Amino acid sequence: MAASEVLEGRTETPGSEALRGLRDTLPFMFGSIPFGLLFGTLATGAGLSAWETMAMSLFVFSGSAQFIAVVLLGGGSGIWVVWFATFVLNLRHLLYAATLVDHVRHLTQAWRFPLAAFLTDETFAVMERRYRTKGGGANAHWYYLASCCGMYANWQFWTFIGITVGQNYPEVQNWGLEFAMVVTFIGIVVPLLTSVPYWAAAITAGLVAVLANPLPYKLGLMLAALAGIVVGVALDIRKRGLDAPASGPAAQDPGP
Amino acid sequence: MSVAVMIPLMILGMALINLAIRWPVYLFANHFRFPPIIERALAFVPVAVLTAIIVPTVLYPGDGTKLDATWHNPALLAALVAAAVSYFGKNLFATIGAGVVAFLLLRWLLPI
Any stretches that span the bilayer, and where are they (chain A) (predicted)? Predict the structure, then answer.
């Protein structure tokens, strides 16, 4: 970011920054409504109580991890598999934090903690764009915090509505909507297949996952994920050399 | 361990894992450096993990023990429809809509 961009921005008050942050996050809040509803409705069918479903949205606050927990629990997976999948899949948030860290370095730890804990795909998209186009500014962290709070409150509200729907109309859980979660994953993966290394990573992961499916404790899933990553990186290095920077578009995420 | 104990433990673990991923970079912002090879590997994570979840879920319907790679498997056909819509349409909501509608129709139409 050029210094001139920082100077261009007028000094906004915390309130005006927060309003803008919320406004710029609104499209993403609308976008995650169906996912919050779907999660709330289907989680109880996968063996979670209403309280547990709500607690997952409140404390985990990660759409893809929550979807995966429901799909994996429904398929009879154990707790370790869910933890592994959560960890590996959400590792991308490390990249987000690494991208934004220059803009939060000057803040106190009391500010940095919520800005880190609520760093979802959507807020990353909003903040990356904001810092790239308008630069920082003395109160930019209020804009960031408002984006976080908007996404969080929205996710809790629609999870709650989803739970209510699932409890009052339990037959909804037999409609086959759980397939919507699988299709959501497909809709995330396919646009990421932009070059040979990504195709190779997906094909390898899919093939190994099927071949290793009989292994106990869903070890096949972990094996397949690792094999896909190794093949992808190897081909990426062959294609672009050892010192090229990381590539590829960021994943779209269901909900936060 | 009973299921009643397991789910809260699972949620707690997931919450801590997420925090362990999102927080350290900001916490240690002043001493932070990322090995480039790790950054490149991270870029492949979503594709690899999600595919490793999708493919067996679709190919092993029901209790997940029997491979069904035939056209009698509505999940397989609907997944192919969704993949095609995603590839040509590039729209997440159109993909979800097409995949779910295809799944429900096929489940109703296909002889079991």
Answer: 28-51, 58-85, 142-165, 177-199, 219-237
Of A60, A94, A221, the CB nearest to B53: A221
The Cα–Cα gap between B49 and B45 comes to 6
Residues A149 and A86 reside in one and the same domain: yes
Q: State the average pLDDT over residues A112-140.
A: 89
Task: Give the distance, in angstroms, between the CA of residue A119 and the centroid of all CA atoms in the same chain.
Answer: 9
A255 domain residue, yes or no: no
Q: Which of B11, B64, B92 sits opposite A59 (nearest CB)?
A: B11
Over residues A171-213, the pLDDT tens digits come to 877 777 778 878 888 988 999 899 999 999 999 999 999 999 8
Structural domain contains residue A180: no
Q: Same structural domain for residues A90 and A208?
A: no
Residues A199 and A152 in one domain: no
What is the ipTM, given to two decimal places? 0.85
Q: Which residues of A touch B93 (CB under 8 A)?
A: 34
Amino acid (1-letter code) at residue B55: V
Same domain, A149 and A34: yes
pLDDT bucket at A3, cuts 50 / 70 / 90: very low
What backbone torsions phi and psi does residue A157 show, to the nearest 5 degrees? -60, -50
Residue A251 has pLDDT above 60, yes or no: no
Average pLDDT of every residue of chain A:
86
Question: Are A217 and A154 part of one and the same domain?
Answer: no
Of the partner residues A56, A86, A97, the one whose CB lies closest to the CB of residue B26: A97
Domain that holds residue A212: 193-240
Neighbouring C-beta atoms of residue B19, cutoff 10 Å: 16
d(CA B24, CA B13): 17
User: Are the C-beta atoms of residues B83 and A190 closer than 8 Å to each other?
Assistant: yes
Q: At which residue do the structure tokens 């309003």 appear? A: A19
Angstroms from B112 CA to nearest CA on chain A: 16
Cβ distance of B11 and A60 shorter than 8 Å: yes
Q: State the CB neighbour count (10 A cutoff) for residue A146.
A: 23
In this structure, are A203 and A167 located in the same domain?
Answer: no
